[in-house]
Specification:
It is built from 18 helices and 10 strands. With about 575 residues, it is of the alpha/beta class. Strand 9 and strand 10 form a beta hairpin.
């Protein structure tokens, strides 16, 4: 409830004005039957005159006009407040998602998060808007209506409200079922959203392997389950409607019978009886709406729980909690007995990906990192930018424990270019300037040239101002990698990590890029992960990983002199492969 009340308090002024207009709405609404009672009683007693009838009709018309205006303002304030609440929650949720680490996104699928950010917020808007509006309207209508009904005929009022306790007890039992079935329906909708997101993202693979029909069948199965769950939910909500209308209708029949007897016995005037019925009908309608209110309330609570579950997540990166001044970094790296395993849900591998790694990298070094697939190369370099939490004292930058460095400060000094790059649907220049949107155009063009991207500019209709399309679909794999490289170079990091980031680039372009990097990154530390050993022959240090451990390390010449070394075998194997390809 703290979450719900916090947003009520934040927009309390709008809700307060909405309640004021809602009270006025019900007061005006309830005054019309009272005025009608006077007119009917005057007609029955013969006291009515044409002028009094005209005055009464004009007064009722004026009240109705005022009622329409006041009712409109009550809805503007109440429903407008609900949209402001959802505006706040949506922004809070998105901002919070930006703070969560990679381990969180390993556990939650994109489609599931999209469902919570769209469908659950729609239910929350109903909770804060129509649900609050109709619930408050119900309370005010009961307060004013029952008071006036009791003034007219206390015994008849008691007969009218007798069925309601039984009705509310039944509704309460059904509403618990609605809560459970609503959660199940929303969870299934999240599965559908995730399926759509995965298929649209991987549509080329679906078509390449002719999986259209099987994917359609799988999607139809998910939709069938969602249909069954929503039908079950509709049955529960419909049951509330049956309870409300059945007991409400039965109560109305009792009121007609008893009220008719009271009119015959002159205990209640005809005008009073008409007014009483005029109060009872709206109360019955509002009582029927209570079924919808309780159903919406339960569904809204389920949505709040799912959103709060995300908001309750906290980053496990120690640097995210570090505040205060941060030291400048030169780029030396020290790794001490680093053992690391991915958090639960991040990988199916039960064993650590790195085990007892010890490594010293002087500032300004060019370091090559090689190894077989799954040796731990990408894991090692990713940990340097605090993507995952590491034990304290295992990774030091210039002697500073990275767990004690502010994460944002660390990442400004560590530039990472992954093998699988991501580009936004913006211009090439905007993608390059992602980390420094205020960078001058000249600097953007300079790093594009360092990344050997300018040689491809004639292919683009508007050069660097060409829109790359969603996820960079209009660029080749090598072009996307060079855009990502230029993006990292623009940050001028003290440590540049190329995680097999040149794998989609031909050998000549790769050589030109590395030559350019040697000049631009002079004095800065460069870590180059590569499955090709040729670009690493000029490295200051080669680190060979095997099964999460450092199998050997040293300069290229010393490693080549080892007859049984892994690096030497990799060099010889790739030379043979190159010779065979040349034949």
């Amino acid at each position: 409830m703290s979450f719900i009340l916090r947003h009520f308090r934040r927009h309390g002024r709008h809700y307060l004005w909405g309640l004021v207009f809602l009270v006025a709405t019900n007061a005006l609404l309830m005054s019309i039957p009272w005025m009608l009672r006077g007119i009917i009683d005057a007609l029955e007693s013969g006291r009515a005159t044409p002028s009094s009838l005209a005055s009464g009709a004009l007064l009722i018309a004026a009240t109705a006009i005022a009622l329409a205006i006041v009712r409109t303002w009550s809805r503007l304030f109440m429903l407008g407040a609900s949209r402001r609440v959802v505006y706040d929650v949506r922004n809070e949720l998105f901002a919070h998602l930006q703070t969560l680490p990679a381990s969180f996104y390993d556990r939650y699928r994109t489609g599931e998060l999209m469902s919570r950010a769209v469908n659950d917020l729609r239910l929350i808007r109903s909770l804060y808007g129509p649900c609050v509006l109709y619930a408050a309207d119900l309370i005010f209508a009961y307060s004013i209506g029952l008071t006036l009904m009791a003034i007219l005929d206390p015994l008849l009022t008691l007969a009218a409200v007798l069925p309601y306790p039984l009705l509310l007890a039944g509704v309460y039992r059904v509403s618990r079922t609605i809560h459970r079935r609503s959660n199940a329906a929303q969870e299934q909708l999240a599965e559908i959203s995730n399926k759509v997101q995965e298929n649209l993202t991987g549509i080329n693979m679906v078509k390449a392997y002719a999986r259209e029909e099987s994917e359609t069948r799988a999607f139809r199965s998910l939709c069938r389950t969602y249909l069954d769950r929503t039908i079950a939910l509709a049955r529960s909500r419909g049951l509330i409607g049956v309870l409300m209308r059945g007991l409400g209708g039965g109560g109305t029949l009792v009121v007609f019978w008893i009220g008719g007897l009271h009119v015959i016995e002159r205990d209640l005037s005809l005008g009073g009886f008409v007014a009483f019925i005029s109060y009872l009908v709206p109360l019955t309608d509002r009582t029927i709406i209570m079924g919808w209110i309780l159903g919406t309330f339960q569904r809204g609570l389920g949505a709040v729980d799912r959103v709060r579950e995300i908001l309750a997540e906290r980053s496990d990166i120690p640097g995210d909690a570090v505040v205060g001044p941060a030291p400048s970094l030169d780029g030396s790296v020290s790794i001490r007995n680093l053992t690391f395993a991915y958090p639960d849900g991040a990988t199916a591998a039960p064993r650590p990906r790195l085990r007892g790694v010890d490594l010293d990298i002087p500032a300004g070094s060019l370091v090559g990192i090689v190894g077989r697939v799954g040796a731990g190369k990408s894991t090692l370099v990713r940990l340097l930018s605090a993507v995952y939490a590491v034990p304290p004292g295992t990774i030091l930058l210039d002697g500073h424990d990275i767990t004690a460095l502010p994460t944002q400060h660390l990442r400004r000094h560590v530039g990472v270019v992954p093998q699988e790059t991501f580009l936004f649907s913006r211009t090439i220049a905007e993608n390059i300037a992602l980390g420094r949107p205020d960078a001058p155009r000249e600097r953007i063009e300079a790093v594009a040239e360092m990344a050997q991207l300018t040689r491809d500019l004639p292919q683009f209709t508007r050069g660097l101002d060409t829109i790359v399309g969603e996820r960079g679909v209009t660029l080749s794999g090598g072009q996307r990698q060079r855009v990502a490289l230029a993006r990292a170079l623009l940050l001028e990091p003290r440590i540049l990590i190329l995680d097999d980031a040149l794998s989609s680039i031909d050998a000549d372009t790769e050589e030109a890029i590395l030559k350019s990097l040697r000049g631009s990154m002079r004095g800065r530390t460069t870590l180059l992960v590569s499955h090709r050993v040729a670009p690493l022959m000029d490295a200051d240090l080669i680190v060979v990983l095997s099964d999460g451990r450092i199998a050997e390390a040293g300069d290229p010449r010393s490693l080549l002199r080892r007859d049984d070394g892994l690096f030497g075998r990799m060099v010889r194997q790739q030379r043979i492969e190159s010779e065979l390809e040349a034949m």
